[in-house]
Amino acid sequence: MSDVKDRIKDLVEKNKVVLFMKGTKSFPQCGFSNQLVEVLKREGVPFETVNVLADADIRQGIKEYTNWPTIPQLYVAGKFVGGCDIVTEMHQNGELAKELAAAGAK
Predict the structure, then answer these.
(1) For residue 83, pLDDT beyond 90
(2) Residues pairing with 21 in the sheet
(3) 62: enclosing H helix or E strand
(4) Spatial CA neighbour of 50 closest among 91, 3, 14
(5) Cα first-last separation, the chain
(6) Are strands 73-76 and 17-21 parallel, antiparallel or unpaired?
(7) pTM, rounded to two decimals
(8) For 18-27, what is each residue's pLDDT tens digit?
(9) Parallel, antiparallel, or unpaired for β 48-51 and 17-21?
(10) How far apart are CA 7 and CA 47, in angstroms?
């Protein structure tokens, strides 16, 4: 498991904004993942995605990494921000824009 944890830590630390999701940025494979891709596009920030469907170890490992049971999961500046509901709410009330700006992503 430590290998998977190291891989996840590396992805989270190397990318200012990274979304662990089902599918890809151009082809989301679940509604919640699609919703967060659209939120990030509206925020106008560059972001990376990790397709958990392509890697069962990452799919399980990311849940253990954050102790968060669902996917998608958004990380900004190495910090877990939340899943679909939390991030969508933050986008609507302006908190996400502040978080992204503080991270130097905007």
Answers:
(1) yes
(2) 51
(3) helix 56-66
(4) 14
(5) 34
(6) antiparallel
(7) 0.95
(8) 999 999 999 9
(9) parallel
(10) 18
How far apart CA 102 and CA 61 sit, in angstroms, is 28
Q: How many CB atoms lie within 10 A of CB 81?
A: 19
> At residue 9, what is the residue type?
K
Q: Check whether the bond before 72 is cis (ω within 30° of 0).
A: yes
- Percentage of the chain exceeding pLDDT 70: 99
Between the alpha carbon of residue 41 and those of residues 17, 21, 29, 51, 91, the distances in Å are 12, 15, 17, 17, 11
Q: Which residues contact 44 (CB under 8 A, 6 or more apart)?
A: 106
Q: Is the pLDDT of residue 1 over 60?
A: no
What is the rounded distance in angstroms from the CA atom of residue 81 to the CA atom of residue 75?
Answer: 5
Whats the size of the chain, residue-wise? Answer: 106
